[in-house]
MMPL family transporter (Microbacterium dauci), 935 residues
Amino acid sequence: MSTLLYSLGRWSYRHSWHVLVGWLLILGIAGGSVALFMKGTDNSFTIPGTEAQEGIALLERTFPQASGASAQLVIVAPDGETVESDAMTEAVTATADEFRDVEGVSNVTDPYDDLVDGLISDDGQAALIQLQFDGQSTDVEQTTIDEVERIAADFRTAAPEGTTSALGGDLFATSIPALTITEAIGVLVALFVLIVTFRSIAVAWFPLVSALIGVGLAVALIYVATAFTTVSSTTPMLAVMLGLAVGIDYALFIVSRHQDQVRSGVDPEESVARATGTAGSAVVFAGVTVLIALVGLSLAGIPFLTTMGIAAAAAVAIAVLVAVTLTPAMLGFSKGRVVGWRRRRAAKTASTKAATTTEAAPQRTNRWVNLVTRHPVVATVAVVVTLGVMAIPAASLALALPNAGVQPESSQARQAYDLNAEHFGEGANGPLIMTGTIVTSTDPLGLMEDLQAEVEQIPGVDRVLLATPNETADTGLIQIVPTTAPDAPETADLVRELRSHHDEWEEEYGVDLLVTGFTAVGIDISDRLGAALLPFGLFVVGLSFVLLMIVFRSIWVPLKATLGYLLSILAAFGVVAAVFEWGWFADALHVAKTGPVISFMPIILMGVLFGLAMDYEVFLVSRMREDFVHARRANPDGDARATAIGAVRSGFSASARVVVAAAVIMFAVFAAFVPEGDSSIKPIALGLAVGIAVDAFLIRMTLGPAVMALLGDKAWWMPRWLDRLLPKVDIEGEAVEHELAHAEWPEPAYTGALAADGLEVRAESRGDDVVVFRDVSVRLADGGTLLIDADDPHAARAFLLTVAGRIAPADGLLRVAGHLLPGRAAWVRAHVGVAELTGSERPLTDLRRAFGGRTRFVVVSGLDTLRGSERDQAAALLRDAAAGVAARGEKLTIVASARDLDAARGVLADAHRTSVDTLTLTASASRIDTQVISS
């Protein structure tokens, strides 16, 4: 991957305008598509397979006037009057009649209806007009909502002076998140940090512009997706928050690496290619971890959360693509001006220059990491205790879906919520509905009265507003007002208590009752999300451990990183609970109302923070590992523990600056969504801001170095069997570094088809590494033919597959068709044909397939196994392939193996291959001979 990114970075640098215009064109097309296809977001939350959803489906079929979205106009009479005065009665009745005439309103219940109780408060001071709409809230036309709001506004004008009213209810319970000027502060902070980091105003804009283009495209695509699927109103804001944060950070890593290289004298074009291949590889890996975690939200089995996770993952994927293409392109505009302002350095006297290496050494490493690694036990205990204290409030974290009660007090829906709670009780804002089929009953009215009496006896039920059959007397409906608020834990307990009587009432009355309604749906979603936390947590933690084992080839480093991630999650949960449950700093953060936070906050926080935590872990620890490996190679007999601690310090010092900048930027972006953010986004943004700060500064930059100093060289221990089992992943551009180091091997401007020096291949046998062949050195000219002679046919086949990029060599250098392996293995696999004739039922078909496409390099196993006419046909295939390649101005190169060399030479001679190099393989040595055969 790193070599591909290396080439991509160079191409983007050379074609800066093409890349920039291309992304802007894509953004423009996506923006135009929004205008054509957008259908709007969905503010409702549904979850199939739950009892509440089944109840809504039953009502939609049999009791449609009670199944749709609802709203209510709360009316409070002037001081000293009641809602039953003549003036109030006239105004309220007239308004109810106007509501009935609105298209899309299926039912209106005025407070003076004799069939309904509870719409006038006990003191007669307040009344409710209830409205029922056709369909759920997403089905209600905006024109209907506008007309209802107009009538409510007219009532406020026409009502007696001193009357208070507010329009609220389920239809208005959720608000649509929107960007405010406060979020721009986060972007400005990010710009300031970038200017300080790069010491350049011009360069600082590059990550910001890249991130803004990526975010714009992601949001546009999300709105286009509303034409094909249901997207919650929270999703675009979450995508903006994540896309902006990771987009700036990913571009920051690439630009920072490029700037450091240019300052050290590397040509700008070469530097961009290297930065994209090295830092870009880590960016891709970090992005993939975030993608996996976000897509993992589908484990909860909740459609709207799955859609949210996929949309956020798309925003991150776009951020990665923009970072590795647009960022190098924008660096192409700056050329060598990327170096920025030089740091001022005090003039040094000759005596200062003559200072000893021992005295200068401490200044080459970061003071903080020196302090932490000198006192690792103190640092470890301090961090763990601090985060443990921060996590204490997490035990009281309660979850619920948002309602009008968490909206700002300026919101009319919030005012209606508060008036309703004041005059009718908190439970009036979240009535429950029980429904069931009563078709077998001979006395539907009597049955509903009996059920009402049963329900009223249950603790937690304030009153029953309505207990009635539908018009066809086949479905019953009971509307229940709890004593507690919709998001109170006691209301959830009441729902469970009502459901616990299901079997009892079914046996006694023959009715299969379901508890449903807007409040019950929210409780079911919260319960489902709570149940999904553990499996999702195991998925994320397990994934974290495995990925880091693959990257760092260690057991202890992933364990340390994973436990640190859990600490940062608990600390973030604790701060969110302290603010939103306990009310700490609630006023300062503009929290409209303390209480439960949105149900999907924990699972989203776990998924997003996982990816970002792995990001910092990779950038810090990979450099430590690199320094440790290099130091051990340079001094294998030195003190391993001292070498390991030194690598921790040097690796930290080399990476800390960019990680600090990235963490500050992410914190600023997330924190900017807290003060004026939507009630759904606010706790998520706060949790992410705290989680980023804790994870970057306390976990990765304090606890991490301390623990690694305690472990010493054992931090990099891994069992050999596990090391062989895990795949190799290049996330720090090792393949690029390898390619650059051997750019002129085997000689400058080498044009041969195959070159190998000290090539060695190993295979596993019964848990041990076995040498298949070693010390193979070969040169094969372009268009040449190489015949492999080996006593062991497995060795010959292994050599062919290694040349074809299918097997990675254990040691040595190998270049095929100008491409160095294993870094360019993907290209080699795509351009080198393979024909395995030994044991093939249709060898000629396999041989013909190997020459497919524009292949000019083919490896053939078992060329001597052809018999009779097959040999002639194979020779003809080789001649035709060579002619086709020659027609393109190229030469055909063949590497083949055979047990019977004379038979293989015969086929090659018939194919007009006049010069054949023979390579003899053994497990310990090899030799190469050249033999000319007649055509």
Observations:
- The longest strand covers residues 768-780.
- The chain has five domains: 2-40+177-337, 51-172, 367-397+530-721, 432-516, 746-932.
- The two ends are 43 Å apart (CA to CA).
